[in-house]
Amino acid sequence: MKLGQWIGLIAIFLCLYVLWQIREVLLLVFAAVVLATTLNRLARRFQRSGMKRGFAVLLSVAIFFAGIVGFFWLIVPPFAQQFHELTYRVPQGFERFNDWLDQLRTRIPSQLVPYIPDLNSLIQQAQPFINRALGSSFAFVSGSLEVLLKILLVLVLTGMTLANPLAYRKVFIRIFPSFYRRRVDGILNQCEVSLGGWVIGAVIAMGVVGLMSVIGLSILRVKAALALGVLAGFLNLIPNLGPTMSVVPAMAIALLDAPWKAVAVLILYFIIQQAESNFITPIVMAHQVSLLPAVTLIAQLFFVTFFGFLGLFLALPLTVVAKIWLQEVLIKDILDEWGHNHEKETELVIIADSPGEGDYTVETPIHKERPTDDAFSPEE
């Protein structure tokens, strides 16, 4: 390899290293782009009805923040009340269980008494783990502050992008060569449409899962059924793992009434999860975004491994965008055209010098070249 090639190779590795170091920042930027794209599409719908751009954007942002405030207003008060009840109901449960064990010791043979567990000794043995968990509360608080700062950063970037999305789009297109800019503009349009389809499909699936959860929990007479149903619908944004996370608080609150209710809640959530994964999501997403279930699961494992919880939350939109770029750039523009850029076709031209002389053919090479878009400029 020549010196210039070595320098180019080293530059590529340096760029990849820098991108890897700032991967979390890039993920936050992507989250802001997804949110800005969604709100921008909503603002465009308002604009079609005759509303001005500024009022349409303000209305879209107002709807978004109203949804966030409504979510926490529905979730936080009931959960705070129910989990406050858990703080004194759980110790009462331990005391009753301990009294039952004491009564059991008096009714069984003395040879079996050592095999009956002592709840007090178990609590004493678990005390170091409890202290360690309490000692890590400061780390939890600092982590919560970090999450809040990241959310604030995403909201600020979303507002800045939403104010003038065309300017940021032009800057991104300028990164590519002039002959490829029109092609990039078309790919971005496809990404925007697909992200919009994913948002619509996710909202429909969230609504159906939340409604089914509220109805089922209300039939079982579980407290805070509305809050638990809203939480189940929201966590449905995280495929495969979200429903598993949502069943834990539902079972904990159901356990306050009776143990059988906790088991019934587990069965209910299992049925809802099966209906969602086998019927709701395939039907909805088939009309919005065409993603294979195995690809979705692999994408989740990949993004959660390299990007953590935020990567898990954004796994589907990242997969949608990556699929479009791979399909359009790698497959269509590179692999499908491999070996065809320099392919020549011959045209047989029959030339007659005179009416009586023999005809002969001349092979004229004609090069097939891809059309260029040198005249395209993002300002157009």
UniProtKB/TrEMBL annotation:
Belongs to the autoinducer-2 exporter (AI-2E) (TC 2.A.86) family. It is found in: Membrane. Keywords: Membrane, Transmembrane, Transmembrane helix. The keyword Transmembrane helix applies. This is AI-2E family transporter. The chain crosses the membrane at residues 6-35, 55-76, 147-167, 187-212, 218-238, 250-272, 292-316. It comes from Dendronalium phyllosphericum CENA369. GO terms for cellular component: membrane. Residues 356-380 are annotated as: Disordered. GO terms for biological process: transmembrane transport. It is a multi-pass membrane protein.
